[in-house]
Amino acid sequence: MSGDHDALFLAAEGDAALCTIVGIDGSFSRRVGAQLAVARDGTVAGDLADNCLNAELANQAAEAVADGAVRMLRYGKGSPFIDFRLPCGSGLDIVIDPNPDRSSLAAAAASVEARQESSLALPLPADTDPGFLATRRYIPPVRLLVLGAGAECTALVDLARTQGIAADWREAGNGLALDKVPNDLAADPWTAVLLLFHDHEWEHALLKWALSTDAFYIGAQGGAPARVERLARLRAAGLGDDQLTRINSPIGLIPRARDPQVLALSVLADVVGAHEALHPHR
After folding, report:
1. Which residues in 196-225 are b (16+ Cβ under 10 Å) and which e?
2. How far apart are CA 75 and CA 198, in angstroms?
3. Residue 35 gets which letter from DSSP?
4. Who's near 41: CB < 8 A, 6+ residues apart?
5. Which residues have CB under 8 Å from 232's CB, separation 6+?
6. Nearest by Cα to 50 from 6, 94, 5, 98
7. Where do runs of H (alpha helix) occur along 138-259?
8. Fewer Cβ within 10 Å of end Cβ, the chain: N or C?
9. Cα–Cα distance for residue pair 223/126, rounded to 1 Å
10. Which residues pair with 245 in a beta bridge?
């Protein structure tokens, strides 16, 4: 889960106010739609990149709860808070909802847990700039489905889990059988399917299956001869070039990774980058 997901879940579970960046004038290290939840006991979830800003919003949220009114605040460039500066020199517009609709929040959180898209209407005042974000959309976090065997799989799964990324590993000979696809394999539009085999005869049935799913990323390791043979077998099985172009191979960002840890870092960075490109708010 991301920090924004954390904010959504805290706000859905209890009495937290919800702070959302709805406009950025310039550049900032968080996107429009980034959120911070502030519970009445002082618990905070999410992160708007600046500890001073987080603390300021926690105070503003407590006051908004006491007032019972939505606040629209400007920080940085053009802000009336002249004693509160943002190092980036940009301007941020942030809406604070002291009492967000808990049923809508719960529904949005449940959808994320069920790995479905969801959205939440934001309580913008009537005179708000029409260019500000009015609806926060959420997508499920990235998930890895690793199919393969060996040190590369171990390194990738370990690295993903240290980053809080869900990783399901099905190992050749231990959960996978040659030329068979387990009935319980599933890949949604936010799942990356990664085939890390040195013995490439394990790939064919699994790649055909992966190409039939909505997985946002499909990758397979292997040198040039293996890649040529792989594509030839898939074409012979009736798959077209529009399907085969979904296969990322060579896999990862670093060319010719020769170490399991380097390959793991290379693959995970590429996958996370592709997942970031799916985010509805940039």
Report:
1. bbeebebbbbbbbbbbebebbbbbbbbeee
2. 54
3. E
4. none
5. none
6. 94
7. 151-162, 203-211, 224-236, 241-244
8. C
9. 59
10. none
